[in-house]
Design a protein that fits this description.
By secondary structure, the protein is mainly β. It has 1 helix and 11 strands. β2 and β3 form a beta hairpin.
Length: 152
């Protein structure tokens, strides 16, 4: 087995900021200030080959069950802010009522519908006219979550 030195392990990795603690404002140079479920100074390291735009990528910590089972509560969602073109069926971080939420896009003729995987009274969809300002902050490109024991 080949031994991996710490120096070789860190080569090619890029630090990506994690937005995780409640109450802070995330500021993107192109999109302006945006209230999210929080912001923190923590970072995770990702292989730069996994990211198309490393300097325009951030990580959201999923809060709630709106995207379960696909994206469980507590998952880390990697978002590329330069990939904002609407694509039917893809998962996006969007600006909805000055908050940042994760939803799946359903494109219609004149509308964009951002739908939760698990709809409920608190996990609602968001609807936008295509002619209105694009609410997409960025496309979700990776999801990391802790594996849980399967229930019998």
């Amino acid at each position: 087995m080949k031994k991996i030195s710490r120096r070789n392990f860190t080569k090619g990795l890029v630090a990506v900021g994690v937005i995780a603690s409640v109450g802070d404002v995330f500021v993107n140079q192109r999109l302006g200030p945006l209230l999210v479920e929080g912001a923190s100074d923590s970072q995770i390291a990702l292989d730069e080959k996994w990211l198309k735009h490393p300097k325009n990528t951030f990580v959201l910590k999923m809060k709630g069950a709106s995207m379960e089972p696909l994206i469980p509560d507590g998952s880390l969602v990697v978002v590329d802010t330069l990939d904002r073109d609407p694509a039917d069926g893809m998962i996006f971080a969007i600006r909805a009522k000055n908050n940042c939420v994760i939803r799946r896009l359903s494109l219609q003729k004149d509308a964009m519908h951002f739908l939760p995987e698990r709809p409920s009274s608190t996990n609602r969809p968001f609807h936008f006219n295509k002619r209105a300002e694009n609410p997409i902050i960025g496309k979700a490109i990776w999801v990391f979550n802790k594996l849980k024991k399967r229930r019998s």
